[in-house]
Amino acid sequence: EVQLVESGGGLVQAGDSLTLSCAAAGFTFSNYVMGWYRQTPGKERELVADISSGGGSSDYAESVKGRFTISRDNDQNTLYLQMNSLKPEDTAVYYCSAVHYVLGQKYWGQGTQVTVSS
Fold first, then answer.
1. Residue 18 binned pLDDT confidence (cut-offs 50, 70, 90)
2. Are the CB atoms for 21 and 112 separated by under 8 Å?
3. What is the mean predicted confidence (pLDDT) over 19-23?
4. Phi, psi dihedral angles at 2 (to 5 degrees)
5. What is the C-alpha separation between 56 and 67, in angstroms, rounded?
6. What is the dihedral of CA 86, 37, 24, 7, to 10 degrees?
7. For residues 5 and 23, is the Cβ–Cβ distance under 8 A?
8. Are 37 and 95 in contact (CB under 8 A)?
């Protein structure tokens, strides 16, 4: 069974840092493009960042460029999102995603709440 389990969310103050983790199991992690999405009530889920299957390239939403860093450890089957200089606008449920780099099949984690107070 495919499993994507996010962790690391919590309540922080504006300007603080937080690191999210996504532990993957049940599939060949290195064959999947991984990504972080976020969603607030009433809004569509939006891409925050994604990273190529080998970790050689990544993309970021304009709103987080320069503040967030996505990374992966293919030996540990884990995806990370380092979030710095957090803003209240970053408050959302953050979801881990996995997309097969050839077939395009997509999986989601259950999400972890990040709340940034002003």
1. very high
2. no
3. 98
4. -70, 130
5. 19
6. 40
7. yes
8. yes
